[in-house]
Design goal:
The protein has 167 residues and is an all-alpha fold. The chain has five helices and no strands. The termini are far apart. The model has no long low-confidence stretch (mean pLDDT 95).
Length: 167
């Protein structure tokens, strides 16, 4: 039964890229756990809680991405060795400053957003509205988290770009 009404030929690139995103999220998730456990300093309370929030969110997305792959009638990859091999996100030392941790997470967000755009592009070509809808919400959430972490990393004297109205 073809409940998807999509060609398997067009879905293969979507599934390949979703599996890459799944791998990216697994490495990102574990990095957040490590940072959560190992944060030290005056920003401990803020970042300990923020990292927990982020890894809880990542854990949910891991399950949703895997279930989307299953919905498309393929098996998600599920071995850590495969995740580490194909993920663009790399492991990090836990022995970092709070600022280094935040900068690494912002960099990882850039990689996740880039991979999401690749998936969305393939999903668009396949007519896969379900994947496009799923990842559209992820993009919005991750951009907001990135903005917040970026704002945290700025000096209080920093300025945002001026809008054309205020120019």
């Amino acid at each position: 039964m073809n409940y998807l009404n999509m060609s398997d030929e067009k879905l293969v690139p979507v599934v390949v890229e979703l599996n890459t995103l799944l791998a990216d999220y697994h490495v990102y998730y574990q990095k957040l756990r490590s940072f959560h456990w190992n944060i030290l300093g005056k920003n401990f309370f803020d970042l300990h809680n923020k990292f927990e929030e982020l890894y809880g969110n990542a854990q949910k997305k891991i399950d949703e991405i895997a279930e989307r792959i299953l919905t498309l009638k393929y098996h998600p990859i599920s071995k850590m060795t495969d995740y580490l091999e194909i993920s663009k996100i790399k492991e990090s030392s836990p022995l970092l400053t709070d600022e280094e941790m935040v900068n690494i997470i912002i960099s990882d967000h850039t990689l996740l957003l880039s991979q999401m755009k690749v998936v969305i592009s393939h999903a668009n070509q396949a007519g896969d509205e379900g994947t496009i809808d799923l990842l559209g919400a992820y993009v919005r959430e991750l951009e907001k988290s990135s903005w917040m972490l970026n704002a945290w990393s700025k000096k209080t004297t920093a300025q945002l770009n001026k809008s054309m109205v205020n120019a």
